[in-house]
Amino acid sequence: MTAAAPQSLVASTVPWKRWVRRHGWTVGIWLILILLIGYYATLIPRFGGFQVASIVNNGTPLVFLAVAQGVIVIAGGIDLGVGGMLVLSSVSAARLMEGQSFEATIIIAIAILIAAAIINAGVGWIITVSNVPDIVITLGSLYVFQGLALSVLPNPGGGTSDGFRWIFTGSSTGIGTNPWPAALMIVIVVGAVSWWMARTRSGLSLYAAGSDRTAAYLSGIRAARVKIVSYAVGGALAALAGLANTAIAGRGNATTVGGNHTLNSVAAIVLGGVALTGGVGSLIAVVPAGLILFFLNPILTAMGVDPSGAQVFQGVLIVIVMAVTGILEWRRRRRS
Q: How much is the pLDDT for 2?
């Protein structure tokens, strides 16, 4: 007579419980975003297409930057320089695209994405060769990128083509009621990166290396290559965030503090459920998390909260989320 299966094992085979355990956080973050939008609609006299477009379009740079950070953190690293890369890419685009045709701006954008991937891959290579912690090397890269941005465009200025602005905002002026171009770009980019990480050997190796570097090595995964690839992909996504920033503003501004962008990207991945220890997280959940962080300021302003109070609220929210994710990760490791 066979022994009965343990209750925990039986429970773990229930499909809906397994699905909730894997995707519950992602669904929860999307629901929070929808609820916040609904609540915001009750705070202002008029809510319509313009407000929705503003949320999606203006939140696009933070979404791309958070996805960039998420790729690197899942692979076991952290990049404090992504904010500087955003600023450098933005001002470079504004400087080179000013007065150019739509076709020329597209070529320039592609060149900037490739250059950013190569530069950030170099940062990853330096980390692997020197064995210096990521946080130290990337903090230095933040200052380097910020300084280069100031040398490229000392004063706010530059420009881009109307068609390039439409790609990210749905309007040639950067202000409109059409959120679909930006939303479609988010879906395509995040969907492609998520598919690559979940369905390909090179993408899955990022999760493996971030989860357990030693086990990944024993499985034949080259951790050094994984880190370089993750930094390259993160650099390209950070540059895409910079291009979106240029399209929205219609110019570049090197005086923007890249460190603020970096902190927001880290906050977004934490809110999106990406473990800072690496190996755990969904980029699909990072999208609403980035939009929520961008969206908090308009909500708090509509509620009459002053900017300093809004900063305190965001800080407390991040601490609470980090505490919750830490407890969940501890429980997961204990069960395994």
A: 46
Scan for tokens 């005086």, then name that residue: 255
The span from the CA of 154 to the CA of 267, in Å, is 29
**CA dihedral sign of residues 95, 58, 239, 100:** negative
Which burial class, exposed, middle or buried, applies to 82 when counting CB atoms under 10 A from its CB (0-12, 13-18, 19+)?
A: buried
- Which of 45, 14, 114, 67 minimizes the C-alpha distance to 234? 67
Terminus-to-terminus CA distance in the chain, angstroms?
28
The 10 Å Cβ neighbour count of residue 37 is 17
Q: What are phi and psi of 274, to 5 degrees?
A: -80, 125
Helix axes 258-271, 82-97, angle to 10 degrees: 120
pLDDT in tens, 260-293: 899 889 989 988 989 888 888 889 999 999 999 8
Verdict on whether the full-model pTM lies above 0.85? yes
3-class state of residue 128 by DSSP: helix
pLDDT in tens, 137-193: 999 999 999 999 999 999 999 999 999 999 999 888 877 778 888 999 999 999 999
Are 116 and 239 in contact by the 8 Å Cβ rule? The answer is yes
Contacts of 326 (CB under 8 A, 6+ apart): none
Domain boundaries, the chain: 49-335
Report how far residue 31's alpha carbon sits from residue 288's, in angstroms, rounded to the nearest whole number.
Answer: 9
